[in-house]
């Protein structure tokens, strides 16, 4: 029986531009501990047109979990600005709170 990741990958083969499926794959890879592939997926979504706002937050959280705090801060700062530009005050607020929880080091 195919794993959840394998099912998502099969669906992505049919529609590789589907942001929701790509985001879902990144989340599954994170759960499996494949942080490099997960972060690669999130980076592609972040760099898309338009940038995928939830990917900034998830990348920031994942980077924090694996000890890359400075990189997490950088991603979150950009994500907050992108969220504001896209009119997503809720996401900007969530990322701002998370960024604050990481402390002021690295600024």
Key terms:
6 helices; 107 residues; globular; Tetratricopeptide repeat protein; 0% strand; TPR-like_helical_dom_sf; mainly alpha; Serine Threonine Protein Phosphatase 5, Tetratricopeptide repeat
**CATH architecture label name:** Alpha Horseshoe
Q: State the assembly state of the protein chains.
A: single chain
Counting DSSP H or I runs of 4 or more residues, the number of helices is 6
CATH superfamily (homologous) name? Tetratricopeptide repeat domain
Percent of residues in β-strands: under 5%
Q: Termini separation (Å)?
A: 48 Å
Structural class: mainly alpha
Strand tally is 0
How many structural units, i.e. domains?
1
> How would you spell out the order of helices and strands?
HHHHHH
Shape: globular
Overall description:
The protein has helices spanning 4-14, 19-31, 35-46, 53-65, 69-85, 89-101. The N and C termini lie far apart (48 Å). Helix 3 (35-46) packs antiparallel against helix 4. 33% of the residues are buried. With 107 residues, it is mainly alpha-helical. It has a single domain, classed as Serine Threonine Protein Phosphatase 5, Tetratricopeptide repeat (Alpha Horseshoe), CATH 1.25.40. 74% of the residues lie in helices and 0% in strands. The mean pLDDT is 94. It contains six helices and no strands.
